[in-house]
Amino acid sequence: MKKNQYLVIVFIITIVLVSCENYSDKSPKIKIGFSQSIDNDIWRKSMDHAMEVEASLHPGVSLTIYNANRKAKNQIRDIENMIKQNVDVIIVAPYESDSIVPVLEKANTLGVPVIIVDRKVKTSNYTAFIGADNVEVGKIAGKQIVSLSKGKANIIEIRGESVTSPGIERSLGFKKIIDQYPNIKTSSVDYDDFNSPNSKYLKLLTSNPNIDYVFSFNDIIAYKAWEITKKRFPNNRIKFIGVDGLNGPNGGLQLVKDGVLAGTVLYPTGGSEAIKLALKITNKEIVPKNNKLNTTMIDSLNADMMSSQFDKITIQQSNIEQQQNIIKNQEINYSTQNNLLKLLFFLFLIVLGLALYSVYSRIIISRKKQELEAKNLKIKNQRNQIKSYSEELKLSNEARLNFFTGLSHEFKTPLTLILSSVESLETEFKNKGISVTKEINLMYNNSRRLLRLINQLLDYRKMEDQKFTLRASKTNILDFSKSIISDFDREAKKKNIDFSLTTTNPDLEAYLDRNLMDKVYFNLLSNAFKFTPEKGKISITIKEDKNNNTVKIYFKDSGIGIPDHELGEVFNAFYQGSNSNRNGSGIGLHLSKSFVELHKGNIEIHSKNGAEFIITLPLGSTHLNEKEIIKDPVLDYVHHSDYLDLEVIQKSEFKNVEDKYSILYIEDNKDLLDFVSDKFSTDYTFFLSDGTDAVDRALELIPDIIICDLNLPEISGLQICEILKKDLRTSHIPIIILTASDDQNSYLKALESGADIFLTKPFNLKVLAQSIKGLLFNREKLRYYYSNNIVNIEEGSFGISEQDFLKKLNDLIGKNIENSSYTVEELASDLAISRVQLYRKVKAIMGISISDHINNLRLHESKKLLKKSNFSISEIAYAVGFTTPNYFSSSFKNKFGMSPKEFKTLYHDPTL
Fold this sequence. Notes:
Layout (H helix, E strand, L loop, with lengths): L1 H18 L1 H5 L4 E7 L5 H15 L4 E7 L4 H13 L4 E4 L8 H9 L4 E4 L10 E5 L1 H16 L3 E7 L5 H14 L5 E7 L9 H8 L5 E4 L2 H14 L6 E6 L7 H6 L5 E4 L4 H12 L7 E4 L3 E3 L3 H129 L6 H27 L8 E4 H9 L3 H6 L3 E6 L5 E4 L1 H18 L5 E9 L4 E8 L30 H11 L3 E6 L3 E8 L42 E6 L3 H11 L3 E6 L4 H8 L3 E5 L7 H10 L8 E5 L4 H9 L4 E4 L4 H24 L12 H15 L8 H7 L4 H12 L3 H19 L4 H7 L5 H12 L3 H8 L5
Parallel strand pairs: 1-2, 1-3, 3-4, 4-5, 5-11, 6-7, 6-8, 8-9, 9-10, 14-16, 20-21, 20-22, 22-23, 23-24
Antiparallel strand pairs: 10-12, 13-15, 16-17, 17-19, 18-19
Helix pairs in contact: 1-12, 3-11, 6-7, 12-13, 14-16, 16-17
């Protein structure tokens, strides 16, 4: 079916394209725009009509006429539109000669040909001008009056608009002729000042009854002047002469024939000629800049002949227009018939194609049916094989799960033995009055944690197999909560966390499976304490909702919270938060949700300024069936503490001792932090950091060794290592990376970050101790090398940053060696580090103080001067920056075992 649809669509598109072919071939190819200045003028309308007739004779021409209605701003707007529409030629009949100049020049700059018609403009930036010579028009009118009056007459001249070229030029031409005859007297009035009762024209007629002629700017004005004169002075003999000579009613030619005008100067519109000129320009023909239209005087002698000729032209134009309309109609009929024929032909092809396709489809469908039956049989066989494989895989997976479940159960036996042994040792020690050591406490605590993880795995397996049976009994929620949170009091005190439990109803009871709800509490509180920083806040709030007969238990902490986009994944199995580097099993919250739902309740989470878990449990027992309720639990709730001792052990930081090497240990596991520091505190000065302030502590202490865990809560060990190795103040410190990851990629990343040693957990304390000793031994060898080659240190000679630092240090001291007032503070400032950091870095690299190093450089420089210069002992002392010669001599003798004088006597050689 789809192929049929596509075939039909292709045919339809083809038909549409073919049907549009005739019209697209005849679409206008030449666009001409014409801006007319006046719309209510007979002469202007005649110009428009002439253009339209001429354009209709050329099928490839599209003519658009705009009318400015005597407003220059409208004409500017129309020309701008024609430029935007990309017309091929712009024809303009200007209303004013100067205001449209900028837009005409713009069109000329853009390469659009511009033809000016009738009136002139004050620029030469146009393509061509076409129109009659208005100066010549004025001269013809003047010659006619001179001829009629034989050089003696009184004349009134009614002038046109002074802002247009015809108004100025016609008056100028007329004046040139009349001024040649002194017996001809002329008075002038403006065209807009002759039609009112107090006009200058009426005043001239009244004051001078001997007016012989009136020359008007155009025939319309001449006719209005004749009417005014006839009305005031019916018996006057004034002769009126106008300009335009249009044929037709109220035209100048008809007025001459009627005897209203004594004559009119023919002023052709130039509409037809303008279109012809535009076509020449579009055909790339060369046209003259100025195109003058011929004019002549029409009077009673030639008026009939001119009228006859104009009538014939008008009839011919009318016939041409009729013929064109007939041709257009015939073209439309032909196009319609042609398209219909094509449509029928293509419909025939479609029917034929569909018939052929129908036959072809039956053959294809028959073949496809056979293929589908074969495929169906093959799929059935494959499905049976997959089903068989699935059963085998299910059995195999079940065997694996049973294996791991059994293995987890087997773990519990040795753990039980370990825990029992530790508890027995603890009891025995207490009975003998011996305090429980930290090693035993650590053994017990971590064994309990391992047991809890194994229990979680077993619970997850039971939940997946749906083998959990709810055994709920009536329980006081406050008492139950108190019995659990007491185990976390020690952790709250240790981290200085504000840990609280509140309730709105101390006597509130609900049906709980105490064993399962204990695990829910423990998981939620473990997470809260894990992600809440020191001096944070954790609260449990129990609220009764009497309207819904439920209880809500809120677990709120001020920890790092959970990203908004991960809130929906929190309760999924094996979920790990992206904003934390702390490892976990990822099944605790999943189990908690499952256990709450077994109670017909629900658990939800919000994360704003920390995380908040809300458990909602129904009150009463109507939501439970009889098998899920036990009146008296077989075993009452028994909670096992994760800690042997109940006293909080506050870790005090050892003070630095000068004869001990210092070590900064960065680890977020406080038990491991305390354990390692206790083991090494007798041999080293230990400083501790949980990772949150690792870089600041390293910059503050400048230790001899840094031991850093890879996975830290806020910043990884690799990032800390990279920062410290790039910092001039700490680049010399050896760094040991500890991690539970033993893959090669982690090892390579540690080396790239600048780590000196990479140890995997669980690590052997002896290996760690030997690693520390090895690094310190290597530092001592470097110190020996640097202290014995203080003036021969090459920059980057061993590819490490210490040489670069010492080279820069020696260069700064060398530049200021004569300056006895050059202090350690100034040197540290030049190196962009603090005085304490400079002291510790030099001490770590060379084993001496910065002051001793400066003195050594001064003394080595003095040896050179004693050998080869002729300076006195005092001059050399001052030259190398000693304040007094005596201090120099004593320092020299202490360093080299002889006085400067004795050294100079033995080794002085000026030729060196």
